[in-house]
Amino acid sequence: MGRYVIRRLLQFVPTVLGTMFLLHYLTSVGIQFSANPVRALFGERAPSEQLLQNVAERVGLGDPCLERKGDPCLGLFADRLEGIFLHFDFGVNLRMRPVTELMADALPYTLRLVLIAIVFEGVVGIIAGVLAALRNGGFVDYLVKTSTVAVIAVPSFVLGFVIREFVGVRFGNVLRGSGLPDWVATGLFSPGFKPDYPWATLVIPGMVLGAVSLAATARLTRTSLLENIRSDYVRTAKAKGLGQKRVIGVHALRNSLIPVVTFLGVDLGNLMGGAVITETIFNVPGLGRLVVGAARSGEATVVIGVVTFLVLVYMLASLLVDLLYAVLDPRIRYE
Amino acid sequence: MSDIGAARAEVSQVPTTTGGMPEAEAPEQRERSASLWADARRQLMRSPVFLIASGYILIVISMALLPFLWTRKDPRACDVVFARQGPSAEHWFGTSIVGCDYYAHAIYGARTSLIIAVCATAGVTLLGGVLGMVAGFYGGWVDTIISRVIDIFLALPFLLGAIVFLTVIKIRNVLTVTIVIVVLAWPVIARIMRGSVLASKHLDYVQAAKALGATNTRLMFKHIMPNAVAPVVVYATILLGTFVAAEATLTFLGVGLQAPAVTWGVMITQHEALFLQHPGLLLFPAGLLFGTVLSFILMGDALRDALDPRLR
Question: A203-229 and A139-153 are packed helices; what angle lies between their axes, rounded to 10 degrees?
Fold first, then answer.
């Protein structure tokens, strides 16, 4: 396993550099073929060239290579890498606030949201998957099968709207008239984030975020468990006279959960990205809303900084999952 | 794996009805030794899910190609006086916030959504298919380089990459949205194609063709491709649906197409705030969108079942 870990780590470095370069190149080409995003700051007014140049210089978009179409801007790339990996500097927004500061404010909300989503998805998904596998062809099985397709087919922002309006507004209004405790009526069933209830108001957005991969988790658990139920060691356990609960819960499930755990790990990264939609709908002041807000107002430097950070998190999560997989599954030996 | 083994044993007992390899060049005896695709077609024609889904898609395609068959009204002839009316005989889906006929809007919206999905899928399949084929066929350092590039692209989540690029470029039209989708989505197809080519390049009939002196291009396109393309076709069908939804999502996030454009995504985004008073304004375009995405996914699933000889 030691060799596998070392090989995986060595592969990780060029992939990170490559992805950083891809991100850098896409944005540079974008800037080269349209105008410098700094112009957006001035709106309709036409600033003098000198002023424009000064502002661009200060937010890190003043490099002359951004004028030459197709130039890969290697100098700028080296500067950015140095900033990110040596000084933890993800650029500044157009008002000169460091993006790291903006992210530090937003990160706790996104982490909470992702945590709720992953717990929801893991617990409900695994339970549904086990039930579906035990009653192969039964109601739960059918439900899991159809909902996997349906959930992909409904764009998650439509799902978010409908749940916000029906659960947060309609159902919430009914509750707010009754004598329920405040944290349920105005917290849990709130149509948007409220700073007074930092956890309760995130429960429903978290569930909406987790719903996208919930069906996939359930399906994966089902397939994996079905495969193991038929294996020899489960038959042996049954032949020894162990009860159904012990055979499924201890013997079969432990092995079946290996792919599920790794899926949840990879999904952690996906959820950080998916939070973009959920946070916009439920008005959660996290990283996702930061990105969308900046994208809508044209603050390119913020978008580039935050997305770079999220991509790094996503890659790190995938790396950890791969290493975890090697630890969990003794059959895996990459030699 | 035991079930697959059992299925294989079952297949081998049935005499010669399933030729695992496509014999694309000799389809003379239709009934007995049909090609993979002819078998698949016969099975698909018997699948009600596939027929319903493709019927729905045909309807949506006819909306996109010939919208005037479906409505006489101009989607851009709007009158604010008639804004936000409910469904009536005059306006089947009611009117939008600026008083346009919503039914006409929904019909004309199909075109932009489908153009983006079809062009992006074509681009992705072409780019990913060729690169995957080259990587799988030549192997060695070519494969190493292409596989690393695939890894690098896959490390960039689709939504985040699209937001960055569309924010920077600021010009958001059908072309830029399509390009962004193609650039970010080709690696998955390339990976599928590569695996599929690797699986079929050592088969006996390919070796035979090689021994007869077939050139590399001929080997790739005449011999390997017909056998390796099935999983790509399945995935591309599903991608069509995914891209219809992706266009709407990008529009919702404010980096897709903008208001004067008529698409389902724009319609949903413009009317989300009015959902409780006028649920139809959100539900009509969302329903059409849902139906389209669902149909493509179901078609892809049915195709996968029909093209996999082990499942017969």
Answer: 130
